[in-house]
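Q: Structure tokens for this one, please.
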Amino acid sequence: MEYLQYAYEKIFGADDTTEGTQGVYHTPRKVVCFGNVLLDRIVMLENPELLERYELELGSKGEIDLETLNKIVTEAANGSSCLSKPGGSALNTVRILKHLGTDAQFFGAIGNDKNGEHLRSIIAERGIEARLQAIEDVPTGQCVCLVHNDNPTLYANIGASAQFSVQQLTHAAVHETQSFLRPIERKQVIYVEGFFVPHRTEVLEYILRDLVRERRHLAVNLSAPYIVRQNAQMMLKLANRAMFLFGNRQEFEELATAAGCQGVDQLGRQLLQAGSPKIILITNGANGVQLITNYEDELSPAGEQRFEDYRAQRVDQLVDATGAGDSFVAGFLHGWLEKRSVGECVRLASTVAAKVVTQMGCNLP
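A: Here is the predicted structure, written as tokens:
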């Protein structure tokens, strides 16, 4: 338990408390993030027997029913230490952005239950600016993270997150004292994690129709191969509208298949043919990052198509790669908002991710 408590403190800091920012919405932020809010249960496994019994592949990600998830947690925690903490991909990105100096705001949903109140309290204590909808009669989402040999296996039941209300979002967007939107002549990034896509078609259609325009740019993270595979049409729609598209090679291969392309390079060319400026970033672990883009600068039309490769940053000691993608997104968007070149943004994102994977959880040292 001491090790897990250490891990918790590395992820969310020690017990010193700062004033929470939930409920204070007077200043629209440069980045607005949409994602799932989950109560993470982290268990360190000495052997993979539990994974084998539930037919879970080491290092895989997916969604399961709540009853099975609770059974796994109960069995995993029997004789092992279990740590509970707030989780969620976009929430990680918001945290890293804040650490880098870019204020961001998070939108998500929790259940009107003890887990939800616990998450709301911790998020506020850590100074994360979040607008959390409380959903009646649906439990707060949960995720179990089973770590064996420093390799995490993650399975979630998103619960109340799936009930995020477009009506409340619309009200916030148009309400003078609650609006999170900057004027359309000032740049702002609307960021959507792939895990947010299932069950939220109405919300996503509203974002695409009413929020993304002029200098409000869409950023999308593919998040996981199964997300792309199971939500192919919406993921393609988001990919076509996005100025920023993030994912690893396996996720982009799934997207290429969904688009009827022979490979990732052909997919990249197809996405750029729409004519709008676009930045496609394909991470590939120790093999570095591939950039596919026609972007010149924010206010210029699309330029020539470019395919560039960037080396991976050296990592002296890999501890936990779970938050690498979330932190890469944060580093890139932070650099772009600082008006750095695309190449500089890629290098900064790689540096941030390389630092995060040396820590337990998605956290900078």
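A few notes: The longest strand covers residues 140-148. The first helix runs from residue 2 to 12.
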